[in-house]
Amino acid sequence: MTTKLETLELALKNALGEGAAISSALGEVTVVVKAADYIKTMQALRDTPALRFEQMIDLCGVDYSQYGEGTWDGPRFAVVVHLLSVANNWRVRVRTFCPDDDMPMVESITGIWRAANWFEREAFDLFGILFDGHGDLRRILTDYGFIGHPFRKDFPITGYVEMRYDPEQKRVIYQPVTIEPRENIPRVIREETYGTSK
């Protein structure tokens, strides 16, 4: 007797063939595909009758530059998509790596799932991942004049600029960050009798 997870893995292997690396851990199935096969794979996941992943639940970017404490030697950026098949009651995670670290780009899946629109904009805004074919790729969370992508591992925690309201100019102004970096080391203060019986 096969489990639901084994049935899903078999259906994925039949639909996607050798071009996809399929693995399962902790009750979840992950499919890793090359960027060149990304759109074809996503189309197959939605349109194959045995799979029928009708809903895109989530899409996000990932920066692997410090993964494994710096031991990662693969591509820096990836796009991870979570899909749901309501008809079959199963989920799958799809990961594709951007082939170019300097200009990370994959094709947009907004033509397959319209819900990907804002998710792709978020990944562009926070990670700088470009989605080829996206109709309106612009920032969604940061300010219009924001420089950089704040979820990249090399982005400074304090940022580059800060904004504040200037009462003299009666407007919001941007200025270099005035926050000095510091290390927060928690201090534990205990009573002298801590841990002893009274």
UniProtKB/TrEMBL annotation:
<keyword id="KW-1278">Translocase</keyword>
<dbReference type="InterPro" id="IPR001268">
    <property type="entry name" value="NADH_UbQ_OxRdtase_30kDa_su"/>
</dbReference>
<comment type="similarity">
    <text>Belongs to the complex I 30 kDa subunit family.</text>
</comment>
<keyword id="KW-0520">NAD</keyword>
<keyword id="KW-0874">Quinone</keyword>
<keyword id="KW-1003">Cell membrane</keyword>
<keyword id="KW-0830">Ubiquinone</keyword>
<keyword id="KW-0472">Membrane</keyword>
<dbReference type="InterPro" id="IPR010218">
    <property type="entry name" value="NADH_DH_suC"/>
</dbReference>
<feature type="domain" description="NADH:ubiquinone oxidoreductase 30kDa subunit">
    <location>
        <begin position="31"/>
        <end position="160"/>
    </location>
</feature>
<dbReference type="Pfam" id="PF00329">
    <property type="entry name" value="Complex1_30kDa"/>
</dbReference>
<comment type="subunit">
    <text>NDH-1 is composed of 14 different subunits. Subunits NuoB, C, D, E, F, and G constitute the peripheral sector of the complex.</text>
</comment>
<keyword id="KW-0813">Transport</keyword>
<comment type="function">
    <text>NDH-1 shuttles electrons from NADH, via FMN and iron-sulfur (Fe-S) centers, to quinones in the respiratory chain. The immediate electron acceptor for the enzyme in this species is believed to be ubiquinone. Couples the redox reaction to proton translocation (for every two electrons transferred, four hydrogen ions are translocated across the cytoplasmic membrane), and thus conserves the redox energy in a proton gradient.</text>
</comment>
<keyword id="KW-0560">Oxidoreductase</keyword>
<dbReference type="GO" id="GO:0016491">
    <property type="term" value="F:oxidoreductase activity"/>
</dbReference>
<dbReference type="InterPro" id="IPR020396">
    <property type="entry name" value="NADH_UbQ_OxRdtase_CS"/>
</dbReference>
<protein>
    <recommendedName>
        <fullName>NADH-quinone oxidoreductase subunit C</fullName>
        <ecNumber>7.1.1.-</ecNumber>
    </recommendedName>
</protein>
<dbReference type="InterPro" id="IPR037232">
    <property type="entry name" value="NADH_quin_OxRdtase_su_C/D-like"/>
</dbReference>
